[in-house]
Amino acid sequence: MKLPGFVNLFGAWFLLALIPLIILYFLKLRRPKMEVPSLALWQSVVNDQRVNSPFQKFRRNLLLLLQILLLCLLVLALMQPFLQADAEVAEYKPLLIDCSASMSATDEFTGKTRLELVKERVRAQIDNLTGDQRISLFAFSNTGRRLTEFSNDRRALLKALEALQATDMPGQLDDVLRMAAAYTRTFPIKTVTILTDGNLPDQVDFELPFSLDVQRVDAGGPNVGITEMSARRSGPEEWEVFVRVSASSVDLRGAELQLWEDGEQRESHQVEVSNEESERLVFPVTANQTKPLEARLVPAGFDSLAVDNRVWLTLPAARPLKVWVSPKLASWRHAVRVQPNLDLEESETAEPRGAEYDLLIVDEDGAGSAEAPVKLFVGVVPSDLQELIKVEEDVSSVVDWNRTAPMLRHVQLADVQIGEQPRLAVGAATKDLEERGYEVLIDGNAGPLMLQRREGLSVSYWFTFHTDRSTLPYRVGFPIIAANVVEAALKQASLSEVVAAATGVLPPISVDANRSYTIRTPDGETLSAEANVAGTLDGIAASRVGRYDVMDGSNIVTSIGTGLLSGTETSLKPVEELRFSELTVATDEAKQLDSDKPFWWFLALLAFGVLMFEWWYFQRARGVMV
Amino acid sequence: MSDTAPSQLTTLFDNSTLNQIERMRLKPNRRLTNRARGEHLSGKGGSSTDFADFRDYVAGDDLRYVDWNIFARLRRPYIKQFQHEEEMHVVLLVDASTSMLFEDKMLRAKQLAAAFGIMGLQNVERVSAYAIHARQDQPWMLPPGAGRTRIRKLLKFLEGIEGGGNIPIEKAIETMLRFHRGRGVAIIISDFLTFGDVSRPLNLLYSAGLEVWGLQVLAESEIHPNVQGDLRFVDSETQETLDITNASELLNVYQDQRIWLQNALHSMCRSRQGRFMSVSSGMTLPTILFEHLCRQGWILR
Fold first, then answer.
1. What pLDDT does B1 receive?
2. Which residues pair with A101 in a beta bridge?
3. Where are the domains of chain A?
4. Interface of B with A in 145-164 (CB under 8 A)
5. Are A374 and A358 in contact (CB under 8 A)?
6. I want to staple B232 with a disulfide (CB 3.0 to 4.6 A). Which of A31, A193, A554, B29 is the partner?
7. Chain B contacts of A47, Cβ < 8 Å?
8. Architecture of A230-303 per CATH?
9. Which of A319, A308, A320, A292 is nearest to A550 (CA)?
10. CA distances (Å), A32 to each of A60, A113, B243, in order?
């Protein structure tokens, strides 16, 4: 049994008031005097064993005992006792509150969301806060944010708690744990408490510097939602729109999936899914220009989570891929030309005529000032790697290649003979390349043969050897590589495949360069954003599911919609344990948020009861009360 | 204070009551008498005309008491014994301490003492009276005397007792015994509310040849106290205090203690061949005398 603790131990000094109380009791007890002939009989009465029985003694000094009891209760209440939740009193308690989309799942019967349940627990924790305890509130979804500093200001804590709302984003622990870990350097934090519904990735890339107390509320009710929406070009103006519907319930859940175009319902389809299963539906759509689509799911019964029932997807306008290939790279030009939906600039000039392309395949002569989101350099070592990679006149061969890279998918490079030998400088290593943002796709016997680098939206591929000085153009893999690079360019230009944007950050939006725009969010709020030199708006936070309008003044330039699109969130399935780098932490539904429970109010109430009893008893004895 | 008119013989009771008292006499359990001749028959052989018994003659006996008729028949001398009439000493001990000043206790005690004294004097007994008080200005003792002429002195002595002070009954008895000579009856009229031990003075009385008659006079407020709540009792004699909480709830114990005290005093007196009775000061004198005392055999009508 844990002994109660006291917040205000100095209050015990008030127990010294017992001394004057007892003295005053005997000094100031105003008993009516009554003269009797002799005390002999009354003295014998007082000495009688019955009168001196413990109970009778107690009754004789009942007033004093009640007053002592009253004082003790008041002093104890003043000392602010509390029942300790843990063996030792935690002074600093970081509470990490899950605000991911699944926390807005409602209970079918109570109508309360998971977040409301968590708030109730945290509210009790704040109400029971003792004097030397400090709480800091953190909220997390896909990222973490601190709501309050460590504080015992109940009003401020409750205000921050009440303002907390669930976001439309999936939950991730990493960020918020790192934030909490940062606080361990300045505060003696022993345990960090996570309040969640358990709908989190079970693998967390984090080394815990503190003990973790994961407490979860019960899982939400049945739910059905859209977890995936994408479109793939099936013809010059034909698209196939894929929508995946998942459910959290074990039982089959029925719903009507509707596809809306420009505010009009175009198609609908009945789906029935159950837990661990999903149904993928395909809608053929014709679009020769930009077309916004919206998938709506109308559940047949109770649906715990509404936020995953709507997803937006914008189909881009149909156009051919704009490609320029250096005139010297005849093999590449020949391989690219055969690809469909492609506009290859047939020009014998050394530099492209246009300024913007979707794909540039260039040699050491470069492409002038032309830009493209996908570039392929052949026989070129990046300028910032010149000191690390030297190309020597020697024969080299392929040692290994990244088979999972999209660029090298379905490509066999074994036995390719290369007449040049890119060689890493003495002392240089692959990590030096990686530090400069390059990823090695093909390793040669002396150095990297192919590199990849991503810069923002653009990606560039670098063959450090000239393919014409190798047997690669004669291999089956060469046209495949050409097809892969075209496919990458198509994807980058959203011409072959487009995926609905998930909440979090809006995908880059192409607008006029160096201009200011206003983003109107689904909540009705407006954000300001500045287009960069390349004419893209990026890094725009999108925490809500819905349509985001990019406005230039009062004109809508373009719109982009987001959806939750998280199978984990839609499933509402709690993880039983979280696996960290070195240990596993169980999530416990039954475990309640343990807090120190003050009971000074109970003692004060008891003191009031004693006071009332005393008043009643002695008034009754004197016959005042009937 | 007075039950009688000024023309009465005494202020303690009226003449009709006096007349009734004069026709009564005390009825002691034992025949404890003095050598002086009186109207009480002595237990010893005497010279009265009433024959008592015979006994063998021993050398030195007065030959005048030899029964010559028996000697003539039996040829052996027998001494004829006669009952000896001697006077009995009646000692009246009236508690006049402060505790007796409550309600009618003092008056009733003086009336009873006067009644007992008159009965003794009317029957040619020696009567002495002692008042237990601490008043220096008042007599505390009436020397022994006999004869009807002592009645007025006795009444005057008793009427003059005002009482007061704190003298325990046991000490008063011991003091009295230092002055007293003679056998008879010691009538103690008191409330017997003392912290001391009464058994020792009773033993002394018994040893002194006095039959102990204890008459406890209690006020109505002592028999049925009407108290409640938290009180501070003040002893009228010592001014000592005693705090009582919820006095009303202690009344049962109080009654038990009062009955226990009566029983203890009764037992002490009976074991010394005496008598004990407790009366209320609220009773009238005739009621006490003619109903209770007569019925209990203390006095004869």
1. 44
2. none
3. 5-32+54-84+600-621, 92-220+572-595, 230-303, 321-492, 504-563
4. none
5. yes
6. A31
7. none
8. Sandwich (2.60)
9. A292
10. 16, 67, 10
